[in-house]
Design brief:
The protein contains 14 helices and 17 strands. It is of the alpha+beta class. The strands form 3 sheets. It has a 9-stranded mixed beta sheet. Helix 4 crosses helix 10. The longest helix is centred in the N-terminal third of the chain and has 20 residues, at 14-33.
Length: 419
């Protein structure tokens, strides 16, 4: 009987895992450089946690199940709700602001396609406890920093769901209907949104809404938006808040962005600034990051707290990276005969204790076959332990160039570190 992996999942071979781990380390190091601390949550949560703000309709896109006690659980489809549940459970009394980051797998029952899988990874942050423009700008600047340092060719689009929601509220559209309309805008279904507004008796707002969501450009777009929103004070206040965030972004050195008031974000807990990052070279699945400001703690029984955050789709980010990490140095110690095996084991242990990752030839092959095996495994340097050991030396072979030289055993870690 032959078994295949489940649809929408992947096996990662050693070289793939090396690239994934290296990218993970680079991204998380940037998170830490901004003062964010790592947290982790369970892989599965109570189903009610997921549906509390996303609605029952999300269940069909979840991996949900009953445990042996009859409780409904779900594999997490994203991190924001679990992290905020953790905050409500354990961190409400912690000094603010809280800067948290996470990395891990998520699960959604969706049709697999390029850059989209049923098991996928997210890397993201949450800044909890501040609604100031500089706090929201920091989160956006952090996402921008990751993309710049990874040398990805990207577009950063910034908008405000607060502006759209307040505009709809000005025309008598209730919160529940706002959620549905925002979802339609997020999916690019503007005609459906307009039809629904007409059914609700708010057809007079459709032209303004369409013009607003089509605005694209620099900070000057806000002036055009202000003209469209004249007479709707609450929406103008939200637009002013977005302007403050854009000003703060200049302090952070983030200048290559587009104001895009058509960003609606599909999740209804967003309250103000929202943003998305696109990598055009990825085609239809070009979005690699999304986030914004939101309020969610009160849904899980906590006190309301302003929060901003984002998540990278790690798998798409990996596809987007234009520069692969440098070739890893891999070392193999080969004893030239059984009589040198004890010494070879000792040298390998010494190298590991000095921070050099290495493996030992344990197949007892002749030198030619051992070297061929090392080459096939991607080993960059080989340490040959033979007669030279009587003079306290070994032979170091560069597998890329074929060059060999004698090196004193005590100098071997430094020589390999600089190779």
């Amino acid at each position: 009987m032959s078994f295949q992996r489940p649809r929408g999942t992947r096996d990662f071979l050693p070289e793939e895992m090396r690239l994934r781990r290296e990218l993970e380390q680079r991204v998380c190091a940037i998170f830490r450089s901004f003062g964010y601390l790592e947290v982790a949550t369970p892989t599965f949560e109570h189903l009610e946690l997921i549906t509390a703000k996303s609605g029952e309709e999300i269940v069909e896109r979840l991996y949900s199940f009953q445990d042996k006690s009859g409780r409904w659980l779900a594999l997490r489809p994203e991190f924001t709700a679990p992290v905020m549940r953790m905050y409500v459970n354990s961190l409400q009394s912690a000094p603010k602001p809280l800067r948290l980051y996470y990395f891990g797998p998520c699960f959604r029952y969706e049709r697999p396609q390029s850059g989209r899988y049923r098991e996928f990874w997210q890397a993201g942050v949450e800044l909890i406890g501040s609604a100031t423009p500089e706090a929201q700008a920091e989160v956006l600047a952090l996402a921008d920093t990751v993309l710049r340092e990874l040398e990805v060719s990207y577009e950063l689009h910034v908008g405000s769901v607060g502006v759209l929601r307040k505009l709809l509220a000005c025309h008598g559209v209730g919160e529940e209907e706002q959620v549905r309309i925002m979802g339609m805008i997020d999916r690019g279904e503007m005609l459906r949104a307009e039809d629904m507004l007409k059914e609700l008796g708010a057809g007079e707002v459709t032209a303004t809404l369409r013009s607003l969501t089509e605005l694209r450009g620099g900070a000057e777009v806000l002036e055009e938006a202000a003209e469209l929103l004249r007479g709707c004070g609450d929406a103008l206040k939200e637009l002013h808040r977005l302007g403050e965030v854009l000003e703060a972004l200049e302090w952070y050195g983030v200048r290559e962005l587009r104001v895009n008031l058509g960003i609606a974000r599909g999740l209804d807990y967003y309250t103000g600034m929202v943003f998305e990052a696109y990598v055009p070279s990825l085609g239809a699945e070009k979005q690699v990051c999304g986030g914004g400001s939101y309020s969610l703690a009160e849904v899980f029984g906590g006190k309301p707290v302003p929060t901003s955050g984002f998540a990278f789709g790690f798998d798409r980010l990996l596809l987007a990276c234009s520069q692969k990490p440098a070739q890893e140095r891999r070392v193999m110690v080969i004893p030239l005969g059984v009589e040198m095996l004890k010494e070879a084991v000792g040298i390998a242990g010494m190298l590991r204790s000095r921070g050099v990752s290495c493996e030992l030839e344990v197949m007892r092959r002749r030198l030619g076959k051992a070297l061929a095996g090392a080459d096939a495994r991607g080993v960059s340097h080989v340490v040959l332990v033979g007669e030279e050991l009587r003079q306290g030396k070994v032979v170091l072979r560069d597998m890329h160039t074929g060059e060999q030289r004698e090196v004193k055993v005590e100098s071997l870690p430094e020589v390999l570190s600089s190779a």
